[in-house]
């Protein structure tokens, strides 16, 4: 079993027949799953391949978190370096998610012929090199080219990373998606810290970016050797993958639409925090300039913590309960922020937001994979577009409402949208009728 090469598709289907008494699988909702066959060399090879694939993919999420944070936290420095006016800056900022959406659409088409692992292997270096290019140029056209390459590559990267995450979760037979996004959050914290150090040391952007790219670029290329492409369940009457590992089947937008709405609303909430938390705490709640930096840091830390333990919650209580609770906690956080009498209560609200919003995006990708087991790559790529839709809508929406109405009132809009997510939480339930035996079952033995 070639466990250390890209394109491995380890699949283990439980044998037919009655389940031994008292044996259950990794899903609390999936009784009757066969335990792993002891001392099986083939099973051991598949288990090692999955573990290596999980670790390498987690590192890819981490590296992407670092790169994205290094870009977005140094936007003022990029603006100064290239002389981008305040009027032109929104054009540059909007172009990145628009091109990322185009990249995600491209990824949906490419995975019909190319494995997601290959897309990830080559898109991540482009992202890192584009980041370095943005910091090293001195003409506006060079910034435009670098950001265009960054945006297109990020769209392919985000889609392919989550494709692999969804297929790995299916192979594991239990929730692991939140762990990958926890690695992204950790990378974001590290990247923001490195950006602060570079700004504090007054380093040129390329000087601050170069060591990071020099470390991450070879690391992700080496790690890409262990990426694992999953395989859809082979169920009679359901499309799976062909002999080359490419998926069949179609994605019905009508069925995917509730998840698209959840993804959009989650990113409207996230972009509200990232773009408006500092200004809101300082201008509306009367916090100091130093205190205004705290809400986003707290939000990132609680997002990391929530995603670190979130998979345990999904395994214990199910995705529907976790998503519904997350949506309610996030809505409570927006309500606290909107009604806060002072900055410290506002910080409490942003803390609640991190705890609530953190579970929504990973579980939305996972739900799309369950909903379309024979076309999960296409479903993930299409769903990923609404990541950028929410990002594009969120910040301008809250800003416009704040100017036209009040910034406190503006916080109630993402609160209402997040509450809609609680209504759609049923879309995150497994579809047991898609599997033989009346229950959703894993494709491999339970591996660590």
- Unreliable residue runs: 1-39, 232-246, 433-446
How much of the sequence is in beta strands? under 5%
Helix content: 55-70%
The DSSP helix count reads: 15
Radius of gyration: 22 Å
End-to-end gap: 19 Å
Largest β sheet strand count, sense and barrel closure: none
Q: How many extended strands?
A: 0
- Provide the succession of SSEs: HHHHHHHHHHHHHHH
What structural class results from the helix and strand content?
mainly alpha
Q: How would you describe the shape?
A: globular
Pfam families: MFS_1
Subcellular location: Cell membrane
Domain Major facilitator superfamily (MFS) profile: 53-433
Keywords: Membrane, Transmembrane, Transmembrane helix
């Amino acid at each position: 079993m070639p466990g250390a090469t890209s394109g491995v598709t380890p699949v283990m289907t439980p044998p037919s027949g009655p389940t031994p008494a008292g044996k259950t699988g990794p899903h609390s909702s999936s009784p009757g799953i066969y335990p792993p066959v002891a001392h099986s060399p083939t099973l051991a090879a598949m288990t090692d391949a999955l573990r290596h694939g999980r670790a390498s993919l987690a590192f890819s999420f981490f590296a992407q978190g670092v790169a994205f944070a290094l870009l977005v936290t140094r936007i003022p420095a990029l603006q100064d370096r290239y002389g981008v006016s305040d009027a032109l800056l929104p054009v540059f900022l909007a172009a990145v998610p628009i091109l990322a959406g185009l990249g995600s659409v491209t990824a949906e088409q490419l995975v019909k012929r190319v494995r997601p692992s290959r897309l990830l292997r080559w898109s991540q270096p482009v992202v890192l090199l584009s980041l370095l290019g943005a910091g090293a140029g001195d003409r506006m056209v060079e910034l435009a080219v670098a950001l265009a390459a960054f945006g297109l590559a990020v769209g392919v990267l985000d889609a392919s990373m989550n494709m692999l995450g969804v297929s790995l979760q299916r192979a594991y037979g239990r929730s692991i998606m939140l762990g990958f996004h926890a690695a992204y959050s950790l990378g974001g914290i590290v990247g923001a810290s490195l950006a602060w150090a570079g700004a504090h040391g007054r380093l040129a952007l390329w000087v601050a970016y170069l060591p990071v790219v020099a470390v991450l670029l070879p690391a992700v290329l080496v790690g890409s050797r262990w990426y694992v492409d999953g395989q859809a369940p082979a169920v009679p009457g359901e499309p799976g993958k062909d002999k080359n590992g490419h998926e069949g089947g179609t994605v019905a937008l009508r069925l995917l639409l509730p998840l698209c709405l959840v993804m959009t609303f989650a990113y409207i909430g996230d972009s509200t925090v990232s773009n408006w938390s500092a200004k809101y705490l300082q201008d509306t709640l009367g916090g100091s300039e130093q205190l205004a930096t705290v809400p986003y840091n707290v939000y990132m830390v609680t997002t990391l913590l929530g995603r670190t333990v979130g998979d345990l919650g999904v395994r214990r209580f199910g995705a529907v309960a976790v998503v519904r609770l997350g949506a309610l906690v996030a809505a409570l956080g927006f309500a606290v922020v909107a009604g806060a009498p002072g900055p410290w209560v506002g910080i409490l609200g942003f803390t609640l937001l991190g705890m609530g919003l953190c579970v929504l995006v990973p579980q939305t990708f996972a739900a799309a994979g369950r909903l379309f087991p024979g076309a999960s790559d296409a479903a993930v790529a299409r769903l990923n577009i609404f990541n950028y839709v929410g990002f594009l809508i969120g910040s301008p929406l809250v800003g416009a409402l704040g100017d036209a109405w009040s910034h406190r009132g503006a916080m109630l809009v993402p609160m209402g949208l997040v509450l809609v997510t609680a209504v759609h939480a049923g879309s995150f339930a497994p579809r047991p009728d898609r599997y033989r035996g009346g229950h959703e079952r894993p494709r491999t033995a339970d591996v660590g």
